[in-house]
Amino acid sequence: MATVHLRIGDLVWGKLGRYPPWPGKIVSPPKDLKKPRGKKCHFVKFFGTEDHAWIKVEQLKPYHAHKEEMIKINKGKRFQQAVDAVEDFLKKAKGKEQNSDGKGDPKGKKTPNKPLKILEEDDEDLSALKDPSEKDLTDSDPEPSTVERLGAGPVSGFKWESSPVKDDPHFHHFLLSQSEKPASSMEPISKRLKIIEEDTGSTSIQAADSTAINGSITPTDKRIGFLGLGLMGSGIVSNLLKMGHVVTVWNRTAEKCDLFIQEGARLGRTPAEVASMCDITFSCVSDPKAARDLVLGPSGVLQGIRPGKCYIEMSTVDPETITELSQVITSRGGRFLEAPVAGSQQLSNDGMLVILAAGDRTVYEDCSSCFQAMGKTSFFLGEAGNAARMMLILNMVQGSFMATIAEGLTLAQATGQSQQTFLDILCQGQMASTFVDQKCQNILQGNFKPDYYLKHIQKDLRLAISMGDMANHPTPMAAAANEVYKRAKALDQSDNDISAVYRAYIH
Q: Does the predicted TM-score (pTM) go above 0.90?
C-alpha cells in the first residue's frame, strides 16, 4: 500500500500482514501504550469489533477513496457488517452536524451547538455505532459487536469469513480489545500477574491477560528451540513464529519440519544441537518414555545443556518423570521448567491453550512472550511436579466425562431415543459447552479425526490412577473409564480422537 498522509479522526482501511483490509478509524492511543519502534504508524479502531491495533502508515488507505475496491475483493458477511457500521457512523455523524445547525430539529428550534466529536481522545464517541434501542453502555459494558468473538476473556478478535484469505484464528493476536481499561491491558505480563494464595501455602499465578498483542508485547530476543511437531507442537510453533520469535525446530520425522522452515524456522539436526544452539528449548512429545529418551538418549538434550540453558518440558507425563528430568538438567547447570498444556489441536492452532507451569520461576518469567503467543492463560504452580499432577487430574476428569457422554449417547440409541434430541437437550442444560457439542456432533457424523489422540487420554488416565494409588486415594470413576478406553484401543481406535471411545460401546 502506498504511503498516505493521515491524521486522527480519518476513516481508513487498515491491513495487517497478509490479512485482508478492514475498515477502521484513526484514534489517539491510550496514554500508557507506547508506539512501536521503527516505521511510522497510527493507532486504529476497527469497526464492527472492540479492537484496536498499531498499523504502519504504508498499510493504511483512505476509506472513501478505496471503498469500492475493498468491497469488490471482500464479500464476507462479517466484513459487510463492519462496512455497514461505518456507514451508520457516517449517517449519524451527518445527523449530528445538521442538528448543530438547527436543521434537524422538527420544531425549528435550534439545538445547542455541540460539535461532532472527531475521536481525538480515548473516550471516542462510540454511540454512533449503537442501536437506539440499546441501553447506555458504561466502561464495564463492552459495546455490542457485530462480529463473532473468539475465545473467552478480555482479549479476543474476529475471524474472516468468505474472504480471499482463509480463516486464520491467529489474527486475533494482532488486535487489542478495549473491553477492559487500557491501564490493565497494556501493562507487561510481569506486572499483570494475579497471585492467589491457597490454604495449602502454594502459590498459583495466573496471567490476567496473556494473549499476544501487536504493539504491547515484544517477542523475547532469546533463541527458542522446539522439539516435537505433533498435534500440539505444530500449532505452538506456528504461533511462536507468527509472533516474531526466532525458533529452531527438530522432529523425529524430519519431514514435519519442512513447513516450518518455509515459515522462517531454523532446522536442528539433533535434540542436542537444538539445546546447544538455543537459550530456551521446549519439548512436547507423547509420553514419559519419549520425554526421557529425548533428554537422555543418544544426541539427547542433556548433551547440549550448558550452564544457563533453559529446558521446558511441555509433555503430559507423571511427576516422577518430571523430577528425574529436572535433576539431570540442573545437574549440568541448566534451568528447568515443566509446562504441560490443557487443550486440543484446535486450541493449539488458535493460540488459546492453558499453560500449567512449575519449577524455576525465573524461567517462567523468561518465557512470558512465548506463553502469550501459544496460550490464553498461564499458571505458575510452584515446585516441579505440581504441574504434572494438576494436568493429570484435569485430563482424568476430561477422559472420564467423555466416556460418560459416549455411554449416554449409546444408551439413548439402545432405548429407542433420538441421539440428536439427547444432544439438543444436553446442550440447553447446565452441562452445555463447546466441548460437548463438538464431540457429540462428531460422533453422530462418524468423524473421529484426532483433535486429541485417544491413546494419549488413556495414557493420562493410567498415570492419574497410578498417582492416586501412590497417594492412597481411590479413583474408581477414572478406573472404569480407563477400561472403556482400553477396549477402544483394542478396537484399533488409538490414533483417532478421544470421542472414538464411543465405538467401545457399540462393538
A: no
